[in-house]
Amino acid sequence: MTSATDPHPHTEPASADWPPPAPPTAPPDRAPRWSLPALVAILVLAAVLYAWNLSGSSMNTFYSGAIWAGTKSWKAWFFGSLDPGNFLTVDKPPFALMVMGLSCRVFGFGTWQMMAPQIGAALATIWILHSSVKRVWGHVAATVAALVLALTPITVAINRDNNPDTLLVFLMVAGAALALRATRDERLLPLLGSAACFGLAFNTKLLAGWIALPAVFALYVYASKAPWARRIVNLLLAAVVLAVSSFWWAIAVSLVPAADRPYIGGSTDGSAWDLIMGYDGLGRVFGGEGNGGGGGGGGGFSGSAGLGRMFNDILGGQISWLLPFSAIALVGGLVLCGRAPRTDLKRMALVLWGGWTVLHYVIFATAQGTMHPYYTTALAPGIAALCGGGGVMLLDALRRDRRWAWVLPVAFGVTGIWAIVLLRRASGWNTWLWPVVGVLTVAGIVGMLVLRSGNRARLLTASVAAAAVAALAGPTAYAASEPFGSTGGGMGGTNPTAGPTTGSGFGGPGGGGNRGGFPGGGELPGGTGQSGRNGQAGGFPGGGEMPGGGQAMPGGGTGELPQQGNGTGETGGAAPGGTAPGGTAPGATGEAGQRGGMGGGPGGMGGADSELIAYLKKHRDGAKWLLAVSNSQSSAQIELSAREPVISMWGFTGSDNAMTVARLKELVKKGELHYVQIGGGMGGPGGGGNLSTEVSNWVKKHGTAVKESAYSKSSTSSSTSGTNSSSLYRLDPSDVG
What's CA 357's distance to the chain center, in Å? Predict the structure, then answer.
């Protein structure tokens, strides 16, 4: 075994079947002819995976509503408001929404217009990682890294969705690559650029954008050639850039009087600073009570917290395929660096990408707060870089030193075994695949052990290629299932995942198609109401749907947001209180001629949805908002159908302190709001807190209940005769005493 103090492995004397070792080689200056075509092919493959059948893919209506609002109001665009009237914002800084909103302002509001910047950012991430790895380990390593990143299942899933994580990963990878360049070239500008990228990442998803910063700091402090005084000055300048690029939005929000700005969603006091430190900050890591950010104390969409979380039934098939290989490559690469100078480029890169991977792994694995599977896409760049760069180092060691001959085969062996375990978890799904993975893995390992010496380079290359194909077969199949599978890309926008379902969050039954949620398959507030691919309805225990369960949007395949309801349970879900007034969720005729909705009929087109919206518009009487509902997912769905402002009274989890009795009285007295839909029940989503109870009681006492027969031609006789279960109320200035 090579000692940790030697710069390079010891070699054996030359023999007939053991040629002298080749000297260590630096990445070639001139690219081989296959390198650029390979990168282009990977980018084309990625573009197809991310964009194919995109019009049939669910978007997160929570963000879609805010993006639409930003196309109607620059104030909503800046604050990230859920509606053009600027009552409440999303529960994150709006940088990702700003990018998508600008695209929709230029090209019109729709799925493709919204997703074009997301797909562009995803492809740019692959290109940046390829370039960074190439400068350290060469073209083979860069190609492997780019391919691994492109095929990571959860990365494919999230890149087909309008959640902010795609832009988050792009900014962090750009920041890491610039930091490595600044350390290598001793240039200040790339270091400042790195700080700016991480600052923008913070404005995309708060503290999640800073997870890799300790690795960047360690890299520069340890490996920079600059004198200590200059290093400190450079880091201080970078800290200033980081602070400005991170906190400009929060400072700007704070400078606007509370009465002139929307309530900051996810906060307890309407301030951006509370959001940063609580719901979307430390609450995600340490859990706790409050407004929902703390989550369930170790459970969640991704299973219980613990160091083995990445390998459980939920996350295993999303991100863990190459985690064992990357870990072996990281340790092996560091040992191979031996006593190389601290400025050794390969060790720099191992410190950076290894630190990136370890930091994200530990935080995601141990997070006690809300933890969606798609968060783990941030692990993918580190895993990809280690597989490419570290893998090439292990291959070079295998060829040059027989004492390292077992390391790469073991890495592929462990990877192959784990792939078989993951594939067999998906009972009945592509059962032919795991035997193929096993055969290719064994063939590749045997070939590496037998053909490593002598003039059999092509056969050795074929053996390594066979093992690599086996390692990538599983994640490729998972990744391809989204755009090309039987689901047609119809994943849930609030909790996108790839491949077959092999487990569910919150202790729910595995293997039944549940994408994670409460026992019985239901989603968190604002969830999809989706129960995977088997067409079974999700919901709370007993079968009730979560508020805002559906993911349907108006429009179809002509650029407008896709209609999602299909009558199979893929999208179903009800508004607060089980159904919207009239028995179904509101819908409307989209600009493409199709009516969206949240269930309640074939194709998600309930009989009363368009009638209700038509009634609200007809009797709006100059109000600023069409309707007020309990939570953000419901408000976004109605807003996208009606294309009118809708108030979310208590935010995504139904526990924001945005709507009070005093605030409601003010809106009604000014004539800015006439209709309120109360209810929601089931606790948090707009029905369980003291504040929501006070508002609901006041509305019931002072408002006039709207009978279903007033707007629905298909209402039952009981509604017509006076038995009214509707939760829709009309309020006028005269009702405010």
Answer: 17
pLDDT band at 723 (very low <50, low <70, confident <90, very high): very low
* Residue 667 CB neighbours (<10 A): 22
Give the 3-state secondary structure of residue 398.
Answer: helix
- Predicted pLDDT of residue 276: 87
Residue holding tokens 């040992």? 335
Q: Is 28 left (phi over 0), alpha (psi -120 to 50) or beta?
A: beta
C-alpha span between 479 and 489 (Å, rounded): 11
400 is written with which tokens? 């040059």
- The whole-angstrom separation of Cα 439 and Cα 417 is 11
Measured CA distances, 712 to 586, 609, 646 (Å) = 11, 9, 20
pLDDT 10s digits, 105-153: 999 999 999 999 999 999 999 999 999 999 999 999 999 999 999 999 9
What are the φ and ψ backbone dihedral angles of 525, each rounded to 5 degrees? -50, 130
| Widest distance between CA atoms in the chain | 101
Q: Are 93 and 66 in contact, with CB atoms under 8 Å apart?
A: no
108: helix, coil or strand? coil
Give the pLDDT confidence of 157-167 residue by residue, as tens digits: 999 999 999 99
| Burial classification of residue 228, based on how many CB atoms lie within 10 Å of its CB (0-12 exposed, 13-18 middle, 19 or more buried) | exposed
> Is the CB of residue 291 less than 8 Å from the CB of residue 264?
no
